[in-house]
What we know:
Helix content of chain C: 40-55%
Radius of gyration of chain C: 25 Å
Distance between the termini of chain C: 57 Å
Strand order of the largest sheet of chain B: 8-9-12-11-10-13
Structural class of chain B: alpha+beta
Number of helices of chain B: 15
Order of helices and strands of chain B: HEEEEHEHHEHEHHHHHHHEEEEEEHHH
Oligomer: heterotrimer
Largest sheet of chain C: 6 strands, mixed
Number of helices of chain C: 13
Radius of gyration of chain B: 28 Å
Shape of chain B: globular
Number of domains of chain B: 2
Shape of chain C: elongated
Amino acid sequence: MTFPLRTRRNLADQVLDAAIEHALFGSAPVSIVKSPPGAGKTFLVECAAAVAVTPPAGMRVVIVTPGVSQLYDIARRLLQYRLPRLELAHAQHRVLPSDLVGRINASNGWNQNLNSGPGVIVTNAHLLAANFHHLGPNAFDLMILDEAYQLAAGDYLQIAYMAPRTLMVGDPGQLHPVNSADTTNLEASPHKIHWSAPAYVLDRFSNTPVHGLPVTRRLLPDTSDLVQAAFYRDLPFQSVVEPSERRLRFHIPGLERGLDDALDAIAAGKSLVAITLPGAAPMHEEADLELSDLIACIADRVLLRQAEWIGERVLSEEDIACIEPHVIAGGAIRDGLRQRGRAGIQVDTVERWQGLQMPVSVVRHPLSLPNVPTAFDLEAGRWCVSLSRHQIGCIVVAREAVHGVIDDYVHGCDTVAAGARDTTWAGFEAHRMIWNALRDQGRVFAL
Amino acid sequence: MNAFDDTLHRVLARYHGRAIPVRTSSQLSPDPDVTIGIATIKIVTEEQIQAIAFGELDQEPQVIVRLDPIGRDVQDLEPFAAFLGDTVVRAAAVDSALRLWVPHSVTLEALDVLGHRYWRNQTAPASIVRMGEICRIIAHEAIIPGQQLVADAAALLQDHVVTGLAPLEEGHLGAILAWLDPTVSDPVAEARERIRLPASGVLPNTPDCHWDDTIDRLRKEMKGAHGARRHLLEDQIAHILRRAVLREWNLLIEGRRAFLDLGLPSSLSGLVKDSNQRVRDALDNGFFPARSPKRLVEQLNVMEAGQEKSELAALEADAMLRDQAARAGGVVRGEVSTVRQNKPGFKPCDIEVSSDQGIIRFRLDDKVRIVGTNVAGVVRGLATAPGGGTRVCIEITSGVRTRNVLTAGARVELIREPYAFINYRSLGEAHTQQPWAFYSDSAPVLPSRPSSGQSALAIARAMRR
Amino acid sequence: MSVKGTTALVRLASNPGCEILGAMILEPGSEKRFYERVVGEPYDREFGERQSSKRRGAQFEQNAYAGDARLLREAFASHLGLAPDDVVVRNLLDDFPGTKDDARIARLSITRTLLKDAREGKPAPHIIIQPQLMLPTKPGPKPYFFVAPDLLILSPQNDVYLPGDLKSFVVRENELSKGDLARVRLQLGAQLLALMHEYDRFDKTAIIPASGMLVFSKPNGLAPHAPRIEDVAGGVEAIRIGIAAFLRHRQRVNDLRAGAEPYTVVADLQPHFQDSCLNTCVMAQWCRQRVAEAAGDLGDVAGRVLGDMELSRAFGLMTGDIEPADDHERLIARHLVDLAEQHSIERAA
């Protein structure tokens, strides 16, 4: 490891230590840790739990996750530690994944035998709220909110009193809680309960201690620099990835100009590239079938050319992520993959990719659409998640018309409520910055 | 509907010269026994009502014209206040739900502003205060998705039909009605002519119909006038306002009739019950806008639950909507391929549904329902079929006796159950506990605890297996 | 159209592609007058602000400015971190009232002095009422726009002022129509851009946050709501785009008119009709004639879906009277036929 990388990693470790020290032993009842993609957020949660249950702390810790899949993942990670107590509580109708059966004390709902003495229980906010009558104020000594930016303040309200100390850990640049109802009036309220829990607390208590993890251990430097500049202006971070450890090699040379040029660029060390298809997305279909097929083709091509993660393995279907914001287009991509015998490559929406990582991702550009971009299309969080899953290479796929969509965009100023932060504009600025950088650096390959 | 489908419908509507329905079910339940209408004319920007027409929809409306709407005297509003109060009492007496028809959303806004001005007005008579409260209750219920209290004629028509106009033009109730009137031979020209005069609860002010300027001038004159001259001016003002508000009332009547003539069925008993309950509670116990964190969360949850339930109700009732949802995986159509049930009519019962759809939005442990039945269950397995379809395994939790569906070969449609649970008790407890982050202006200072002095990383490393 | 105020800038930002709008801005006089000169007929619809709106706007401002702007001081005290009585207000209308050019210029001069004083740490008011700013678009005719926010509010963080506007329309909780929201944000955007130009004249290091403030009226009487801080970075850029468009349109109009009045060359200019024009522009009906028989007549979305296809052609494709000329038309025809059959069958039943 180079000296600068080691220095950055050491700094990151210091920040992690300080954050945990303040959260567990300091005088502030809430601490927030802002964690860029791949910073080691879950590792911080593990460390915090380990310190919390160890003497002299000896705390009863609850780790709250927004959804059930994160709950099981955290449980798996914590099983790597010798904790005095490790428990899991999930909803009545849930079935424990088979790999956890017999390894962890799991409860459907709450029971009185849980949470006894120093140790950790992993659960989610709804379950705690549903069992408030079993719990009470300060039922726990420490509450750790994992993926805290995905937990709405309204959900946090129902569990906040259950612990005197709360450590909120999450990624502020990614998707925030989704509201299906109209929250216009809430933007003028002193209680923005539709915001994420950390955002709500910071809005009301601006002196809440905030620690920012200064590194990403997932993203290579070129992607990291772009993602940080576009989505994390208030959270400086750098890559601590040794580029030589994230190199791709294709055993089969490329023949198709444009498409293989982009893949070769990744092999040459550019971790973020784009491929454009001529024309514009057709208006008459719910999915751009030609583009979807191209995405399937690219994913297939990576494997056809026998991509190898040097020093690790030859890539397989499980190593490629196809990220498509729209469900119907995702179905078209899956059809394309199936026709190519690649049914094992996972295709999903951005929401479902949040929290995951893959060596290679193929992403449909959200603005490669026939219509004028909407607030949904421009949302920064969605784009940030799409561009921050990959450990080695990300290929953004778009229609050529996306150049014009970005260059000709005029902001309508009417997508967010009065007094609200204009996240639509922030999203557009991120789009423009990223696309212009790709263009300027010769990373856009036209077919 | 996506942009392409919307465009094609408009082309078809333009060709035929008639509005084209885009729903096969209604998002409004049938009018209950106590159904009334209100139309208003307001002063622009002042948001003061200067004329109201109100009453039952099969009768001539009562009309109030306000000569001095900005003044403090509210006596002229008494008949409206009495009517609202009596309507509420009548509905309670016959145990009927309440329904209010308005021509468009501007009427609702006007009522809400009226409500804001009088519901806590300490100098106004009790009847006016009660009127204000009822107006606020109406306006508040109107924002909850799936509500059944307020029928906004313009919005209902826009949601259920497409015309050969641009969408923006359909916001004018008179314009959209031109497409639903078989006696109109050229709906494009007729609609665009109608658009010249506003249908938004304000006085027209075009060069050929400058009622707003006229009223303004007459009121100015009236201030310094006396005796017969004053009476004449008052009559002139009243005449214009009456004409204007009756024009709005007639739009309301015609809009309602046009909507009902679509003849769309509805199946909204759950939404009706929820809406009635909310309105009844507010009318009986008072209206209290949400300000505390707990109330705000409750209100947001009520709106989200309403959204989920109304989407589900629409899907269940409307095959056209189910078609669209199926393309996006929100509805799964397939055939029951396997039934595992030890004893017919009893649990445990698991089924497998084979679908051609490659796109399915269900996840493991999702609660689902079979459309048109009382059968519900939990998704326990999802597998992709070799040909590109999907197999969904469902543990049936209710409706196990419904044999015609729980049988191999039965064609079914699956939808996800709405998540509409609101944990009022938990919220109540949170309110009792008053967590500082929500209920205090300052954060507490915790006593510092002694740490181990070791780095967190070192501790964690030592604990790894 | 007048260059006093932000109306023209907001319109340009909302539709930068419209050359007709450019001509209208260059033409002296009102928009209705422009219409009448182009079309040759009186304008037959309502246009412009109603008397009740103007009156209420004036009353709202009067109320807000009364008693040394007591209501404003109370409204902004919390934002400024001061007690209301400690908030210092300077009302430039007291010095130079009126809308005549010399009064504007005088207020501009005072405004510039106050901006500079605050940056230099000299005593400066926390709130300036009726300041005047200028946004340059020289060289060429109409070389500047006069921009007059209702207020400038001193930012507690960095000694720069931010623009603020009083809006007399009633806001109950936070409901505003999209149209109103867009308009008031673009107005703030124009004011902020003008402010940036003013600061740039004497202090290029000044960092102006992309924020403005809006004060709406409560439903009861003329009481102001607490100010809302608006994020207007997008609005500033939209105004920049609008100004760039104006410069282009001005050049084109000047090239065509050879000294004649701008309205005389309207027929040679390219409109950019869109749905929103129907609610905002006197020329909407006239420009619409250009798409009268085309898909655009069904709205912006239909125009994008079907391109510049004539409606009669679309009907012909549907009835089979016209053969599709390409794949796109074949697809449209197929879908239209399916849809027509679906509805015919239903009607027949």
